[in-house]
Each structure stands twice: as C-alpha cells, then as structure tokens.
C-alpha cells in the first residue's frame, strides 16, 4: 500500500511520524508539498506574490504521477479548505481513497465526513489507525470498526465504536521520517523535533482544550502528557546530525521546560554530543533563574512564551483557564534577562469580556517588563474550543458563522464585532495597542512611556510599519545575539524561490512505489 501525504506550508512533524510508522509496518510513502509562498497561513500573506508562486496545479499533477493507493491530509483549520480543493481536483481525474486527520477533523469529524471528497476521518492520534486503514484497504477488508476512524456506507456516516487512548510509550515509535520533507528545506537548516507530547493546561483558545479529552469511550487510561527518554531523543539527534548536518534545533513541545529533572540530564548531553543552538517554547510556571542559566550554558538562542492577557487573575482563570499570575511572568522575564537570553512573548487582542483597563495596564506592564519581541494576534475562533462554544452560546457567533468555522473559514474577532459602531471603535482601539506592543521592544527604554496607542491607530499604514519594525528587530537580534528565527524563515523562502526547492514539484515524480524511502533513517525502536 502506497500512501501520499499532501501538505501545505511548513514541515509537519506529525506527518513525519505517520510516514515513519507506516513504513515500519510495510507500507511506502511519498509527499506532495506546497510551500505556499507568500500565503503560508502563518506569517507571510502577500496576495499578488502568492498568485505568482501558486503551485496547486503542480501538486495535483504530482499526486497523479505518484499514483497513491491512499491520499492522506493532516489539517489545521486554516488549511482545511485548501486540502478539500486538492482532494476534489484529484478525484475528478482519478478515484483515490482519502483520509483526513489532524486538529480540524478531530474537532468536527462528523462535519468533515459530510464532504464527498472525504472517505475517512481519523479522530485523535493517527499512527496506529492509519496503518490499520492501509492494511484493511490492501487486504480488501472493511475499514469500519477501526478505532478512531469515521467511515461512510451508502452515504451514511458511521462513527467509530471508540477513540483509542493516546500512545503512552513514545520511545517505541520510529523516529520521524525526515527524508519525506528533505527536498522542501535548505541544507544545514533547522532540525525540528518533539521530546514529548501533550500539555498539562487547557487554555480555552488552544486545541489542547478539546484534544486532550478526545478518548472518552471505553477508555480508562487518559495519559496525555508524555515524554521520551533522554537517550531516545539524543539518538534521534545523533542520526539526524549525521544525515543532515543541521545548524540548529527547534523543540516543538508545547512546554519544553516542564520537567527540570529531565532537562538537567538532557541539556548537558545535548551540548556535548550535538552542540548547536536551539530554541523552545516555555511557560511562566516552568521557569526560574537556575533553568534559564542552564539553557544559556547549553546553547539556547531564545524561547517563546504565551502571555495572552494581563487582565485580573479571576478573569484569566475563569474565562481563559490560564494558571500563571503576574509574578510568574515577571520572574520569567527577569530570569531570561539575567541569563542574557532572548524571550519572545505573545499577546491576544479581542478576548471576550476583557476590560479596557486590562489593555491600559498591559501597556504599562510591558513598558516596565519588555520582552525581546512582543507579537500580538487577534483572537481567532476555531472549532471545538470552549471559547468558541461560549461565544456561540452568548450570541456573539451566529449559527451561520459557527457553520463557517466548521468549514474551515477562519473567523476573527474583528469580523464578528465590526458590524456595530461600538465594535468598530473597540477594533480601532485594539489596533492601536497592537501597534504599540509590537514596537515597544525596538524602542529605547526612556521612550517607551511616550507610546500612545490612540495616536498610533490614526497613523496611516502604521500596522504594516509596526510589523516591519518587529521583523527588523528580529533580524537585529539574530545579528547581535544569535537568535536565528528570522534568518531561518528567510532561508526557507530563498530555498523555494532561487534554490533547489524551486523545482520541488516541477521535476519528474519518483516511481509511484518508491515514494521517499531512499536513504531514510527512521529506525524502529526495539
């Protein structure tokens, strides 16, 4: 059985794990990848340039050349409609069974199954269910009855009998299939990996809010936060460095700094055996001076942390389910400052029922305690989340808008509230704070207290200018302090525009039964 994964945007670790697991169980895999230049659904959106570099036609042609037995899509909400369109265009020329998995289909599986182009939906973690589907199709058996898998028969949608528990022994998984995405990334690039899965928190605006609770039927073991052994992680990195000679590592754990005892063992060995810069995600509840110093000594180039709101604590706990307090945030800022480490922070605008005073206080707070970068985002309503369900119940989101969310059409806070005079006024106010927060880290400390969001909101083109200022600050951080995030992003675009990635989907496809297996090092753990 040959499985072709179809992806858009960035390298996906989840797909690499699915591929290596499928290979370990006797199947072959390949990749049809659209880099989505200038419309990557993440940071870069330039519509006219996106049209110039559009590769959808090439993606469809590559899939047809690969001639897969199963077409697999792993979807976030913002790529769901694109995935449907590719599946639809392929089906017009050839009937290939399709399976959709990932966060969006897991949030609304029955809804996704309603599309004609979708044959199966995988709800929850997909390694074992995907292989069982491939085995069933290869042997001519019914797919119905496989845990986690939604199916259809004569147009009727059939729910799986149960959703299986999360994989508990991550050491038993094959290493992610890095060969799958190798043509899509530059040489000596960043190596992305996860040392564990799951988050202990259930923020109402995050996918963990519902994903952690998926195993609800006939399952007693709900262990969601899991971590690989130190030796298992280092072995993956040793093999990866030998094969790819990467220049840096990004740890994609939800909270990399969660277990200090594990880090005390892992990080010194990482420095001695791997010895490249690295970045991670952290949390204010899992950071102190000792840990920040250990990170600095072992090559950390910086970290990212969500703050999201500086509203009163009862609001943060009750509405957002955020557990850190202001002192935790200050302690983390100070720890990174003492260790001379970069810290990028995120803040969400447009949170429901957040007071105007909270933004005024946030500006005052960030003037005193300023991270290396302060990225701001408007709240986005995703399917399956508690914050979305609350907005719908309160009447802020209509039935029609909720249906559009399920379709994968992003619904932003400003789309919901732009219809009223009061809403438009609040949006202008939020825009001023968005600009203020983004430019604060680039200003000398004495000038920060003069930043006025009301004035900034009236300046034409100030929103894109603030983003340019933030991007320039990121590049300056890289030049002066070694923070490599901005450089990696630019290198990826150069790879696809002028490098060898420019012919990613234009060259003749591999043999339909070879996929990306050549040279793979995704070993199976004993």
Can you summarize this structure?
It contains 23 helices and 17 strands. With 526 residues, the protein is of the alpha/beta class.
Mind explaining what this structure looks like?
With 526 residues, the protein is α/β, with parallel strands linked by helices. 44% of the residues lie in helices and 15% in strands. It has helices at 13-24, 47-52, 56-66, 77-93, 103-107, 109-113, 127-139, 178-181, 208-211, 230-244, 260-273, 289-297, 313-320, 326-338, 356-368, 386-393, 399-406, 413-417, 421-439, 445-448, 453-458, 462-481, 485-497; strands spanning 2-8, 28-34, 70-74, 98-101, 120-122, 149-153, 156-158, 190-193, 196-197, 226-227, 248-251, 278-282, 300-308, 343-349, 373-378, 380-381, 411-412. The strands form 4 sheets. A 7-stranded mixed beta sheet has the order 2-1-3-4-5-6-7, sandwiched between helices. The chain is globular.
């Amino acid at each position: 059985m040959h499985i072709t994964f179809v992806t858009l945007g960035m390298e996906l670790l989840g797909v690499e794990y699915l591929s290596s697991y499928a290979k370990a169980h006797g199947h072959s895999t390949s990749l049809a990848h659209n880099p989505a230049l200038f419309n990557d659904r993440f940071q870069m959106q330039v519509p006219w340039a996106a049209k110039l570099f559009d590769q959808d036609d090439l993606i469809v042609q590559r899939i047809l050349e690969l001639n897969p037995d199963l077409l697999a899509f792993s979807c976030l909400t913002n790529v769901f409609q694109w995935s449907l369109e590719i599946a639809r265009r392929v089906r017009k020329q050839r009937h290939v069974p399709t399976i959709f998995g990932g966060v969006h289909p897991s949030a609304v599986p029955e809804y996704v199954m309603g599309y004609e182009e979708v044959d199966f939906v995988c709800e929850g973690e997909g390694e074992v269910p995907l292989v069982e589907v491939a085995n069933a199709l290869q042997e001519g058996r019914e797919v119905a009855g496989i845990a986690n898998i939604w199916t259809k028969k004569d147009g009727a949608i059939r729910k799986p009998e149960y959703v299986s528990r999360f994989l508990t022994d991550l050491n038993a998984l094959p290493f992610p299939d890095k060969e799958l995405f190798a043509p899509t990334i530059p040489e000596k690039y960043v190596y992305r990996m996860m040392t564990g899965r799951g988050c202990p928190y259930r923020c109402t605006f995050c996918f963990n809010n519902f994903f952690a609770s998926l195993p609800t039927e006939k399952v007693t073991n709900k262990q969601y936060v899991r971590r690989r052994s130190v030796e298992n992680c280092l072995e993956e990195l040793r093999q990866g460095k030998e094969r790819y000679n990467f220049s840096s590592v990004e740890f994609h754990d939800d909270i990399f700094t969660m277990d200090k005892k594990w880090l005390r063992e892992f990080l010194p060995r990482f420095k001695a055996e791997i010895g490249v810069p690295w970045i991670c995600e952290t949390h204010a509840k899992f950071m102190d001076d000792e840990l920040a110093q250990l990170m600095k000594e072992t090559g950390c180039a910086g970290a990212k942390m969500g703050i999201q709101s500086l509203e009163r604590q009862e609001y943060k706990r009750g509405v957002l389910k955020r557990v850190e307090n202001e002192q935790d945030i200050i302690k983390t800022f100070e720890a990174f400052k003492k260790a001379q480490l970069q810290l990028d922070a995120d803040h969400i605008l447009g949170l429901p029922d957040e007071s105007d005073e909270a933004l005024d206080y946030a500006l005052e707070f960030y003037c005193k305690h300023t991270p290396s970068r302060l990225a701001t985002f408007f709240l986005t309503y995703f399917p399956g989340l508690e914050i979305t369900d609350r907005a719908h119940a309160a009447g802020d989101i209509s039935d029609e808008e909720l249906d559009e969310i399920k379709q994968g059409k992003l619904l932003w806070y400003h789309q919901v509230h732009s219809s009223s005079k009061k809403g438009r006024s609040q949006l202008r106010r939020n825009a001023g704070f968005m600009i203020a927060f983004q430019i604060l880290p680039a200003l000398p400390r004495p000038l920060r207290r003069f930043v006025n969001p009301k004035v900034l909101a009236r300046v034409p083109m100030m929103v894109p200018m603030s983003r340019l200022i933030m991007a320039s600050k990121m590049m300056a951080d890289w030049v002066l302090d070694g923070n490599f995030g901005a450089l990696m992003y630019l290198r990826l675009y150069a790879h696809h525009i002028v490098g060898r990635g420019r012919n990613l989907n234009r060259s003749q496809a591999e043999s339909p039964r070879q996929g990306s297996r050549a040279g793979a090092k995704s070993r199976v753990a004993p």
